[in-house]
Amino acid sequence: MKGTAVSPLLAALLAPAIASAFVCGARHHHSSGLAHRTPAFVFSVPSKRGSVSVSSEASPSAPSSASSPAATDGTQALSEDWELDCYSRPVVDPATNKKLWEVLLTDASGSLRVCAPLPSNRVNSREVRAIVEAAVDASDVKPQTIRFFRGAMFNMISIALADVDGITIRPSRCCYRLVDWIDERMVEVYPKMPGYRLSMAVDGPASSFLDVRTPVKLPDALRGEKYAYVSLPLAEFLEGGSITSENVGAGRLCPIPEAKSLPADAFVQGVVILTPRAGALAKWLAGTEVASMRCDLRRRTLVMEADISTQYLVAKLNDVQREEGTAFEEGKDQLGGLHFVSVQVDGDDDEPAGFWLLRDLGGSGS
Question: Which among 362, 364, 352 has a CA at the least distance from the CA of 12?
Answer without folding.
Answer: 352
